[in-house]
Amino acid sequence: MDSKVYVFEGKTSTEAIEKGLKELKVSKNKVDIKILDSEEKRSFFSILTPRVVKVEMKLKENVENNENKPKSKTSQKLEKVDNTEAIQQINKFLKDFISKLPNNKTLKYDVKEEDGLVKVNIDGDDTGYLIGYRGEVLNSIQTILTNIVSKSSKERSKVVLNISGFREKREKDLQNLATKIAGTVIKTKKSITLEPMTAYERKIIHTKLQENSKVKTHSIGEEPYRKVVVSLK
Q1: How far apart are CA 192 and CA 172, in angstroms?
Q2: CA-wise closest residue to 53 among 7, 6, 5, 9
Q3: Nearest 5 degrees, angle CA 91-CA 98-CA 196?
Q4: How many angstroms separate the CA atoms of 107 and 124, rounded?
Q5: Which domains does the chain have, with CATH numbers?
Q6: End-to-end CA distance of the chain
Q7: Phi-psi region of 99 (alpha: psi -120 to 50; beta: other; left: phi over 0)
Q8: What pLDDT, in 10s, does the model give residues 136-188?
């Protein structure tokens, strides 16, 4: 459990709490709140000074990251599904989707089941526009594929899309980033909050830093703005 405590200020306790929830991107039931400076505690000499109320916030245990924890064999068995129909629906969609792309003649796709997942791979020339900045377009296409499957199949199939080896390249970049951030945290002794990432990307950061004995990680915020925080142990 993360022991980091956050302090926020406002003219009233309500304002300070709202500011804290907004910055941490969590709901009120996910933090422990303690008012440090009471609104009533004001002396005669402080009447003319601006009112400042401080509140202390600490993330509850149920907000801590579980993304880097391996699933039990029991849960893995429960999640096993028949992906046959999902694969058929994705093949049908991709055939029509790719035929309408400007460079469709150079594109090839493959859909298969691996480790209980429906893995989709698209490869070819000039696929950068299908990947987008840091995989934003790729992730959007993956969301579309997931929605198609969920609407047309009774099974809850998990879809993972990869385009021209982007996942492997992104994983390597994130691992290098994790190592660099850990070094900065150790040197400055200050926590660092990374930019919002997908669950897949956060998992890479958590896993990479598990091997570091000096830092720890947890996630804060709500999807799709959930972030990884790296701090000293």
Answers
A1: 20
A2: 9
A3: 85
A4: 4
A5: 6-63 (no CATH), 77-164 (3.30.300.20), 168-232 (3.30.1370.50)
A6: 10
A7: alpha
A8: 999 999 999 999 988 877 777 889 999 999 999 999 999 999 999 999 999 99
Q: Among all chains, which residue has been given the structure tokens 């950068």?
A: 128
The 10 Å CB-count burial string (b at 16+, else e) for 77-116 is eeeebebeebbebbeebbeebbeebeeeeebebebeeeee
Per residue in 54-108, pLDDT tens?
888 888 765 444 555 555 544 444 456 788 899 999 999 999 999 999 999 999 9
Tell the residue number behind the tokens 């422990």, with chain if given: 32
| Gap between the Cα atoms of 21 and 30, Å rounded | 9
| Overall size of the chain counted in residues | 233
**Residue 108 phi, psi (nearest 5):** -130, 150
The full 3-state SS of the chain, as one line of letters, equals CCCCCEEEEECCHHHHHHHHHHHHCCCHHHEEEEECCCCCCCCHHHCCCCCCEEEEEEECHHHCCCCCCCCCHHHHHHCCCCCHHHHHHHHHHHHHHHHCCCCHHHCEEEEEEECCEEEEEEECCCCHHHHCHHHHHHHHHHHHHHHHHHHHCCCCCCEEEEECCHHHHHHHHHHHHHHHHHHHHHHHCCCEECCCCCHHHHHHHHHHHCCCCCEEEEEECCCCCCEEEEEEC
